[in-house]
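Per your request, structure below.
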């Protein structure tokens, strides 16, 4: 393995100034003009009483003598209306109610709608059901009828209009936020927050709200435009505010548009430019908010013990006695995991019994949908669905993960188990710097001060092969390449020196060169730390080269298990052989026909009786479709479940190919 100090191939060319580049791209000339336009409107709205515009009469504002339907010019910038009033002065006078109504109604609707949407998306269940029904009913109700009714009943004051537009704006925000929350609540960084002991309120405020702020901010600028347009629509039917508004000016000028088009078009142009400016600035802010750090640090719960940190960044824990070096770090007995869904109960994990010794690497192999990822989630207890039941025994470093108290489980998750996910973008919080995400677990579980935790974070990033770790600490996840993000997640998994590392297809989204680097890195780190590892993958070449034992999963069950070399040399289950033969053989001529496994994996909602591979197995008989195969041992650590196991002479007739090499 290359030295961690050697630059790796997945390192992108570092930009000279990332923040400046983002600003240049986001804030173009149009955006700066939009900001200037909004600033002028705000200035006019705030200081309109001080400007030389105010000379009120009973009908409006008269700043100087203006002729009826006077054309725009130096005397009257926007010309005069049908009664000789200065249109420009009236447009400036209408800026204040437009901004007050638009900003106030939008902010209230955004805040209340976000609260409703996050509650529905995070709590789910009945809360989500009731909220969704109410939102759908509200969106289906004719808003114009409501506006007319409320306006007729309560008058046309600014307060009535703000409340009215705010209430009608809540359902759209609630629907948008609910959808974003449903997606974010399944991300690994939310699971990590729960494992650190964050309660629901803390998760919502610290993890969900900063990420949801982006879509809410984007929609808020559109919401502002909707409010301004809606007020203009009410003005056309005589239901606007008591004071001068842009909608009133447009409505009043439409009758004279053939003789003096400027009376209606210039106020309409002002409204259009304002709406356009808010949208352009909103898009620009959405482009640059992502790199900005959002201060969402949770209140840290720390332990009393302060571990010693070795120079290489490894937390020095009590060394296991010599007679326990081969103890079982992970011991699973008859594990069942059932997902209770509206379509029925999904038997995602069905009676798995496995163990992993200290310092050992176990590979879990199977097709998509065989239950590999759900097996890992069953160990740590995090699921996308709220209604999940587990039974059996899951023991990690002697802790019963199914029956221990929540504090003990959280402590075990934080100190004994590390998790490397398939997609680092879902594992890393996009609005928090790498430093924050690495330092926090150390401070929570081991009471390290900020300086010591930061120093260890630098050593961890260096140990996983990231060059210039000091600069990487200040970066956000989106500023790193895919391989670099995955190295960061490996560092996060090792941050508290775990005894067990769970890797869920950690190289799937990476190119072949980076895959090899990361696999060698995981192997080297495992040997250095005497750490156990469970590696989930669909790539047989990965388990063959980087694991000690293999477990083949199909239909939520383990169908064959044993030492890696022994299993590849003489597989016994028909599914194992089918998987091996499905690997492309690079030594064959081009356009050679590829081996495939006919059919589809069984549904785990109502799995078939007997052997679950029977429907796709060429050697299946009636007994395979009715009787569940029992566990047959080849030796103490080698077993399979098959009524008609593969005999050695069958393997000789058809070579088994793995990664292009005959086995």
């Amino acid at each position: 393995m290359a030295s961690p100090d050697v630059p790796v191939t997945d390192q992108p060319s570092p930009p000279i100034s990332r923040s400046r580049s983002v600003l240049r791209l986001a804030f173009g000339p149009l955006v700066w003009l939009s900001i200037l336009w909004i600033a002028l409107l705000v200035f006019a709205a705030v200081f309109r009483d001080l400007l030389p515009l105010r000379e009120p009469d009973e009908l409006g504002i008269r700043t100087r003598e203006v002729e009826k339907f006077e054309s725009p010019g130096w005397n009257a910038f926007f010309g005069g209306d049908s009664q000789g009033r200065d249109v420009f002065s009236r447009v400036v006078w209408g800026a204040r109610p437009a901004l007050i109504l638009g900003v106030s109604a939008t902010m209230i609707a955004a805040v209340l709608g976000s609260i409703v949407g996050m509650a529905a998306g995070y709590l789910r269940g009945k809360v989500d059901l009731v909220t969704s029904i109410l939102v759908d009913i509200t969106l289906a109700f004719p808003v114009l009828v409501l506006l007319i009714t409320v306006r007729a009943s309560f008058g046309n004051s600014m307060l009535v209009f703000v409340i009215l537009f705010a209430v009608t704006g809540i359902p759209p925000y609630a629907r948008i936020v609910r959808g974003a929350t449903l997606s974010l609540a399944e991300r690994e960084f939310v699971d990590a927050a729960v494992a650190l002991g964050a309660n629901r309120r803390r998760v919502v405020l610290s993890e969900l709200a900063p990420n949801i702020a982006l879509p809410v901010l984007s929609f808020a600028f559109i919401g502002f435009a909707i409010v301004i347009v809606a007020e203009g629509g009410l003005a056309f039917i005589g239901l606007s505010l008591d004071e001068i508004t842009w909608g009133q000016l447009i409505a009043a000028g439409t009758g004279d548009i053939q003789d003096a088009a400027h009376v209606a078009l210039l106020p309409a142009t002002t409204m259009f430019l304002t709406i356009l400016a808010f949208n352009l600035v909103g898009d620009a802010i959405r482009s640059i908010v992502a790199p900005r750090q959002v201060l969402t640090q949770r209140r840290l719960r720390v332990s009393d013990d302060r571990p010693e940190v070795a120079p290489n960044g490894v937390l020095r824990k009590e060394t296991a006695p010599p007679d326990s070096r081969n103890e079982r770090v992970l011991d699973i007995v008859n594990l069942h995991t059932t997902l209770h869904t509206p379509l029925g109960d999904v038997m995602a994990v069905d009676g798995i019994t496995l163990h992993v010794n200290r310092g050992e690497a176990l590979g879990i192999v199977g097709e998509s949908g065989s239950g590999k990822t759900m097996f890992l989630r069953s160990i740590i207890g995090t699921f996308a669905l709220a209604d999940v039941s587990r039974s059996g025994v899951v023991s990690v470093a002697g802790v019963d993960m199914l029956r221990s108290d929540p504090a003990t489980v959280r402590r075990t998750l934080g100190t004994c188990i590390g998790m490397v996910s398939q997609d680092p973008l879902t594992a890393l919080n996009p609005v928090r710097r790498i430093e924050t995400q690495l330092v926090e677990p150390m401070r929570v579980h081991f009471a390290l001060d900020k300086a010591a935790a930061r120093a260890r974070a630098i050593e961890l990033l260096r140990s996983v092969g990231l060059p210039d770790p000091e600069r990487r600490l200040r970066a956000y996840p989106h500023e790193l390449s895919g391989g670099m993000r995955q190295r960061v997640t490996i560092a996060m998994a090792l941050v508290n020196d775990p005894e067990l590392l769970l890797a869920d297809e950690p190289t799937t989204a990476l190119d072949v060169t980076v895959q090899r680097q990361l696999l060698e890195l995981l192997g080297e780190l495992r040997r250095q730390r005497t750490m156990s590892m469970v590696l989930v993958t669909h790539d047989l070449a990965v388990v063959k080269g980087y694991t000690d034992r293999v477990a083949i999963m199909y239909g939520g069950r383990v169908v064959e298990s044993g030492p890696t070399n022994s299993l590849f040399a003489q597989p016994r289950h028909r599914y194992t052989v089918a998987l091996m033969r499905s690997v492309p053989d690079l030594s064959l001529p081009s356009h050679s026909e590829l081996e495939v496994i006919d059919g589809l994996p069984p549904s785990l909602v109502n799995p078939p009786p007997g052997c679950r591979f029977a429907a796709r197995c060429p050697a299946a008989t009636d007994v395979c479709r009715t009787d569940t195969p029992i566990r047959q041992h080849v030796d103490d650590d080698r077993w399979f479940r098959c009524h008609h196991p593969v005999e050695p002479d069958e393997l000789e007739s058809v070579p088994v190919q793995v990664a292009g090499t005959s086995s």
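The mean pLDDT is 78.

Regards,
D.
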